[in-house]
């Protein structure tokens, strides 16, 4: 499992996506219920975000080219906006995921992964 975690972390960092999307794929592949896979991914996302933020802060400290209100490479107004909106919408998303049929949930997640793939591929071109 440590090797899987390391692999997911490395791929996520290289591609520039959150590890949660790959965690859901791995757990679904291991026959974990889709709802449980999504909720586990959300729970894992918090420590991933904290550790990633610490890395961006440490690597950006002392950079004179950064705008005001930055701590390292973290722009505080954006961080606050993301935190507030996430806290307000997370309960809604959890309720929707539990009410939705698993087949529909899988299709929405597949579309989400396809959209990420297209974004990454167009960024390479």
Record field, number of beta strands: 2
Give the uncertain stretches in residue-range form: none
Residues in helix, %: over 70%
Distance N to C terminus: 34 Å
- Radius of gyration from the CA trace? 16 Å
The DSSP helix count reads: 5
Strand content: under 5%
For the largest sheet, list the strands in their spatial order.
1-2
Rough outline: globular
Element order: H for helix, E for strand? HHHEEHH
| Main pleated-sheet profile | 2 strands, antiparallel
The domain tally reads 1
Supply the helix-strand structural class: mainly alpha
Can you give me a brief rundown of this structure?
With 125 residues, the protein is mostly helical.
Task: Explain what you see.
This protein is mostly helical. It has one domain (2-124). The protein is 79% helix and 3% strand. The chain contains 5 helices and 2 strands. The chain has helices spanning 2-15, 19-29, 34-60, 76-99, 102-124, and strands at 70-71, 74-75. Strands 1-2 form a two-stranded antiparallel sheet. A hairpin with a 2-residue loop joins strand 1 and strand 2. Helix 2 packs antiparallel against helix 3 (34-60). The longest helix has 27 residues, at 34-60. The termini are far apart.
């Amino acid at each position: 499992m440590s090797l899987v975690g390391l692999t997911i972390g490395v791929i996520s960092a290289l591609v520039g996506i959150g590890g949660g999307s790959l965690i859901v794929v791995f757990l679904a592949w291991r026959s974990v219920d889709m709802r449980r896979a999504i909720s586990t991914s959300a729970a894992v996302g918090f420590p991933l975000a904290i550790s990633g933020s610490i890395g961006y802060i440490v690597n950006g400290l002392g950079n004179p080219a950064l705008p005001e209100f930055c701590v390292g490479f973290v722009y505080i107004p954006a961080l606050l906006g993301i935190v507030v909106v996430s806290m307000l919408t997370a309960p809604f998303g959890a309720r929707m995921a539990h009410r939705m049929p698993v087949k529909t949930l899988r299709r929405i997640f597949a579309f989400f992964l396809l959209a990420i793939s297209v974004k990454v591929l167009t960024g390479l071109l």
